[in-house]
Amino acid sequence: MKITVDFEECLKDSPRFRATIEEVEGDVCELESKLDKLVKLCIGMIDAGKAYNAANKQFVSGIRELAQQSAKDEVIESSLTKFAESLQEMINYHTILFDQAQRSIKMQLQTFVKDDLRKFKEAKKQFDKVSEEKETALSKNAAAPRNKQHEVEEATNILTATRKCFRHIVLDYVLQINVLQSKRRSEILKSMLSFMYAHLTFFHQGYDLFSELQPLMKQLGGQLDQLVVDAAKEKRDMEQKHSTIQQKDFSNDDTKLEYNVDTDNGIAMEGYLFKRASNAFKTWNRRWFTIQNNQLVYQKKFKDNPTVVVEDLRLCTVKHCEDIERRFCFEVVSPTKSCMMQADSEKLRQAWIKAVQNSIATAFRDKGDDSEKLDRKSSTSTGSLDSGGEPKERSLKGESALQKVLAIPGNACCCDCGQPEPRWASINLGITLCIQCSGIHRSLGVHFSKVRSLTLDTWEPELLKLMCELGNKVINQIYEARREELGARKPQPGDPRHEVEAYIKAKYVDRRFVRRPSDEELRSKVVSLSKQEKRLSGNSEHMPPKAPPPTPKLRPGSNASGQSVKSADSGIQNSADGSREMLATTPSNNSLADAEPAETPPMPMPATLPPPSPCKEMVFYEPKEYSPGLQLYWASCARSLPDMAEALAHGAEVNWVNTEEEKRTPLIMAVQGGSLVTCEFLLQNAANVNQQDAQGRGPLHHATMLGHTGQVCLFLKRGANQNATDIEEKTPLSIAVEAANADIVTLLRLAKMNEEMREAEGPYSQSGDETYQDIFQDFTHMASNDPEKLNRY
């Protein structure tokens, strides 16, 4: 409704003018309310559209991934790729539509409300004020007494000036009203028309796009009908074949194995056999064997890398083995080694022997031909004792590790972008990540972040415990301490990858948001950490072993296991039976207390062994200077992982050396503190497991001296050199033998035995005997879950 206010009427200030003004003001107030509501609804529509586009992009990404996975099917791959491109175009059109809505509705109407309506309100304020002043002047003029001439003149002058001002302001107000009434029509229609044209363009573009796609869709529709018919036919054929095979007699299935050298893939024969390991224990393991391309190879379960047993069958012989306890055994002998195998039945044994003999004969006939060599990958590194072993049953994997880690405060969302339900982790930082952020973390390099899957990878107990003692909340308090102060925006789910990558690099590589402590704060922190041993002494979970009882009386020249101290390492050269006997006779909790008494006096504890609770002995001396390295040093002893992570964020060197305290390192102090998780945290952050102090003792020496079995097991798994000697020429094994610590002696001897067996077996050996792996797994789980069981003396 268009309301026009007459200029002549406004000068009269009649009741009709006042009624018109009141109607106009109410109409403008309602107009402002409706426009504000429309702008808010437009903003909500645009936000919802952006969310829709984001979800649509993820859907299109899923289509592309499905197309890549179906690369072998050209029809599916090409069709899905074309559909994904078309849908991406529609997303682009939607984006343009929402941008146009923002410009035509939100920005244009907001400008009208803020500019024109604001001018109207300001004019109204001036009009109301001058109207009130006019009424006051009229009342004062009317009340002026006749006999007081000066009051009459004053009232008359005020009234004259007020009327003049009123006429000027009321004319401006009426002008503003009429301009607003005229402009509202053009502004509203112009905004809506622009928005509707944007829709028209959007639907025209969509129509043109799908018109081009329609021939392909019709073609696929025709192909789909044929595919349905073919699928039904294939289903009938497979059901018939299934029924036929189900009716066959498989009672004598062993006879169906035949030697066939003319197969397309070169596999002459394949199947499961038991293989005897060439180690001291002579364990038997079931493996998948294959005779292929003039070679005999085998694979572990669920492993893709074959191990070559015999590289050239022309140099081998095969024979029955009747002189061992197991049945159906045969042996393949080459000039360098032999392989003992066992079939499931006599018929299978004969079939395998015949297949090997035929392969040898075929290889001689075709000796001029070059045979394809299999890719051999063997784990010969001693850096990690469990690097090539199969996943153990008690290692946490999948949902178990996921549930435990996500239960930590802050871990339910990605540490860097907030994406819910993360499925990846950075093990050296102790945080959870979404798949996009995990890829960015991988690109930083392992010296910044080591990424592992929470659902696909196997988690050792000490590593899982490390993840549960840190978490996103703790790490963000360190690495994002100054983020809000600097005004940096934290990424959100769905943000462009380059923005998230820039933020992560600023956070972890440049450490831009870390709050640097003052010298006084650093000093206070270091002094506080150095005094925590009194509080920690009541913590039973990580306490060092209790003080040993009086040492049992032993026969002269023997240790707790009844063996000669001088020949402590001789058990390594024993046969399989001797090795098992050594493990079986390892003293238990009470075996030392029940040792046979002797006439000789008790053997005293060696002078090189410190008291069992060394952290209580640590005395804090005022250092020459305070540094993040010193904070890491004392935090490692105090078992405070958040303070250790903070020190590393402040630039502490993980292998920092305290020259004022016998060149000890944070890892050695972690050993002194008695915490397995603290050691694991330092190792994951590239601590040197073999760095020695001024006495020539590395972490393995200290853990052995203190009787920390779990730490000994961890260091051996992480590549500690058990042959290193201190300045007194003592190795960890000799120290453990002197202390009569049966568990640590067992671990060190097993590790040495495993290392020698790998060296003896050559470059094709596996990463160690499975019995050895099982024993280390037992100690690992006990150290993490039941540490009190290792306090055996």
Specify the overall morphology.
flat
Q: In percent, how helical is the residue content?
A: 40-55%
**SS-based class:** alpha+beta
Radius of gyration: 42 Å
**Discrete helix count:** 23
Q: What order do the strands of the largest sheet run in, or round the barrel if closed?
A: 4-3-2-1-7-6-5
CATH class of one domain: Mainly Alpha
Rounded mean pLDDT score = 77
Strand content: 5-15%
Largest sheet: number of strands, sense, barrel closure: 7 strands, antiparallel
**Named CATH architecture of one domain:** Up-down Bundle
How many strand segments?
A: 12
State the low-pLDDT regions, or none: 368-394, 537-616, 763-768
Distance between the termini: 98 Å
Walk me through this protein's architecture.
The protein has 793 residues and is α+β, with helices and mostly antiparallel strands. Among the domains are: 7-241, Arfaptin homology (AH) domain/BAR domain (Substrate Binding Domain Of Dnak, Chain:A, Domain 2, Up-down Bundle), CATH 1.20.1270.60; 259-365, PH-domain like, CATH 2.30.29; 408-509, Annexin V, domain 1 (Orthogonal Bundle). It has 23 helices and twelve strands. The strands form three sheets. Strands 4-3-2-1-7-6-5 form a seven-stranded antiparallel β-sheet, covered by helices on one side. The protein has a three-stranded antiparallel β-sheet with strand order 10-9-11. Helix 3 (74-142) packs antiparallel against helix 4, helix 12 (519-530) runs parallel beside helix 15 (628-638) and helix 20 runs parallel beside helix 22. It starts with 6 loop residues before the first helix and ends in an 8-residue tail after the last helix. Mean pLDDT is 77; it is low at 368-394, 537-616 and 763-768. GO terms for molecular function: GTPase activator activity; zinc ion binding.
